[in-house]
Amino acid sequence: MASTTTPSLADLFKTLQFAWFIGHVLTLFGSVFYVLSLIIFRSSIFAYTLAYAGALVSYAVVLYKTYGSPKLTADYGRRLSTDENTYYLVLSLLWLSQPPMAVTLIPFVTFSAFHVLGYLRTTLLPVLLAEQQQHKQPHQTGSSSNASGSQTGAEPWQTKTQQQIKTWTDTNYGPAMRFVAQVEVVGVMGRLLLGVFSLRFLPIFLFAQFLRSRYHLSTYTRMSFSDLASNLNRVLLPPTASSKVPLLVSKVYTNVRDMLIRFATNTTPAAATTPTPATTSTSTTN
C-alpha cells in the first residue's frame, strides 16, 4: 500500500506551524474588529490586545522554530539581535504597553494577511483536497464510469482557490511591502513624534532603533526614506522651496537630516539581503 504524504487535519492542528497560523489569524481579525470599533466610536481594547497577542504568538513560534529554546549565551543573543522577527516581537510588546495607536497595526495586519493566505494555499487547502478525495474513493467502487466522468470535469475548488491566491499574492506582495515601509517611516514615526508633547520619549527612541535596523535590512524601507527626503528637500530647500520658507527653517532641516543620516548609517545590524518578515516567517515555519 502506498503511504500518503499529506497529513490529516487532526495532525495539522497539533503542529507549531498551525499555532503560528492561528496567531496571524488573531492579528488579522483583531485588527479588523479594532478598526470597526473605531468607526462606530466604541474603541475595543480587547480587539487591539487580541491583535498583538496573535503577533506575539506567531513571531515567538518563528523564533523558537529557528533558534530553539532560549539560551543565556552570547551567541544566542547575537543571532536573535540580527533577526527581524525579534524586532517585530519586541514591537508587539511595546505597542501592547502603550496607549492604542491604530496606525501601528497596519504593518502587522499586512504581514498577517499574506501569511494567512500563504498557509491556506500551501498547507490547509491541499489537506482539505486530499481528505475530500479520500472520502470519495469508497463511493467510486463499482461506478468507474461515473468516477471517470467526474475526474474529467471541473477541477476541484481547492485547486482554483490556490491558483487565485498565488496570482493575487504574486501581484500585490511588492506594493504591500512598499506600503508597509511607508507607514512605518512616515505614519508610525509621525504619530510617535506627536507623543513628544505627552513626554513619551521611550517609544520614539525604541522605534528609531527599529527603523535604523530596517534601513539596513529592507530595500523597501530605504526607498521610503529616500522618497521622504526627496519630498522634504523639495518643500524646504532652495531652489524648489517656497520663498515663504524662512532660511532658518531650511538650515535646521538640513542639520537634522544630516544627523539622522549619520545615525542610520553608523551601525549595520545585519546584511542588507535579509528577507522581510513576511518572507522570513513563512519560510521558517513552512
UniProtKB/TrEMBL annotation:
<feature type="transmembrane region" description="Helical">
    <location>
        <begin position="192"/>
        <end position="211"/>
    </location>
</feature>
<feature type="transmembrane region" description="Helical">
    <location>
        <begin position="18"/>
        <end position="41"/>
    </location>
</feature>
<dbReference type="GO" id="GO:0005783">
    <property type="term" value="C:endoplasmic reticulum"/>
</dbReference>
<dbReference type="GO" id="GO:0071786">
    <property type="term" value="P:endoplasmic reticulum tubular network organization"/>
</dbReference>
<dbReference type="GO" id="GO:0061024">
    <property type="term" value="P:membrane organization"/>
</dbReference>
<feature type="compositionally biased region" description="Polar residues">
    <location>
        <begin position="139"/>
        <end position="153"/>
    </location>
</feature>
<protein>
    <submittedName>
        <fullName>Uncharacterized protein</fullName>
    </submittedName>
</protein>
<dbReference type="InterPro" id="IPR051645">
    <property type="entry name" value="PER33/POM33_regulator"/>
</dbReference>
<dbReference type="Pfam" id="PF03661">
    <property type="entry name" value="TMEM33_Pom33"/>
</dbReference>
<feature type="transmembrane region" description="Helical">
    <location>
        <begin position="87"/>
        <end position="111"/>
    </location>
</feature>
<keyword id="KW-0472">Membrane</keyword>
<keyword id="KW-1133">Transmembrane helix</keyword>
<feature type="region of interest" description="Disordered">
    <location>
        <begin position="136"/>
        <end position="161"/>
    </location>
</feature>
<feature type="transmembrane region" description="Helical">
    <location>
        <begin position="48"/>
        <end position="67"/>
    </location>
</feature>
<dbReference type="GO" id="GO:0016020">
    <property type="term" value="C:membrane"/>
</dbReference>
<comment type="similarity">
    <text>Belongs to the PER33/POM33 family.</text>
</comment>
<keyword id="KW-0812">Transmembrane</keyword>
<dbReference type="InterPro" id="IPR005344">
    <property type="entry name" value="TMEM33/Pom33"/>
</dbReference>
